């Protein structure tokens, strides 16, 4: 079993129970081959607390993760970088068509395809499972 890879951000929202400021912690994690987005929050004013597991990370929280932690890049290494295999993995994982996968392939091969660390590690693991030497790195 591969280790969990995660990044978290703190933000505030309005408490649904009392309207006060609610402290929230959002975490994007790569767990058992899939990305998860979880939020834990608590209100100092009324004591309300909750935890919610979502499917996709909200775009504003993804932007916050990238701003606070920096982008990770997907890197393929050496002679194992077979274009057809990489494109097959990209199409399956990103849900894109052939033209989109070819565009992403160019970014990957140039070392410019970036995202959150859990996102890039998911793609790196899928590529490694397909026989491509790949890693998620941060400059």
Topology:
Blueprint lengths: L4 E10 L6 E11 L2 E10 L5 E6 L4 H11 L2 E5 L6 H12 L3 H12 L4 E2 L1 H13 L4 E4 L2
Antiparallel strand pairs: 1-2, 2-3, 3-4, 5-6, 5-7
Helix pairs in contact: 2-3
Structure write-up:
The protein has four helices and seven strands, in the order E-E-E-E-H-E-H-H-E-H-E. The chain is α+β, with helices and mostly antiparallel strands and 139 residues long. It has two domains: 5-69; 72-137, Ribosomal Protein L30, Chain: A (2-Layer Sandwich), CATH 3.30.1390.10. The strands form two sheets. It has a four-stranded antiparallel beta sheet. A three-stranded antiparallel beta sheet has the order 6-5-7. A hairpin with a 2-residue loop joins strand 2 and strand 3 (34-43). Helix 2 (83-94) packs across helix 3 (98-109). The protein is elongated and about 60 Å long.
How would you summarize this macromolecular structure in one to three sentences?
Helices cover 35% and strands 35% of the residues. The protein has helices spanning 59-69, 83-94, 98-109, 117-129; strands spanning 5-14, 21-31, 34-43, 49-54, 72-76, 114-115, 134-137. The mean pLDDT is 93.
Rg (CA only): 18 Å
Averaged pLDDT: 93
- What fraction strand? 25-35%
At the third CATH level, what is the topology name of the largest domain?
Ribosomal Protein L30, Chain: A
The shape is: elongated
- In quaternary terms, these chains amount to single chain
What distance separates the N and C termini? 26 Å
Task: Report the CATH architecture of the largest domain.
Answer: 2-Layer Sandwich
Number of helices: 4
Sequence of secondary-structure elements? EEEEHEHHEHE
- In total, the number of domains comes to 2
Largest sheet data: 4 strands, antiparallel
Task: Tell how many strands the DSSP assignment holds.
Answer: 7
- Relative helix content: 25-40%
- Within CATH, the superfamily of the largest domain carries the name Ribosomal protein L7/L12, C-terminal domain/Adaptor protein ClpS
Which segments are poorly predicted (pLDDT under 50) over 5 or more consecutive residues? none
Q: What is the CATH top level name of the largest domain? A: Alpha Beta
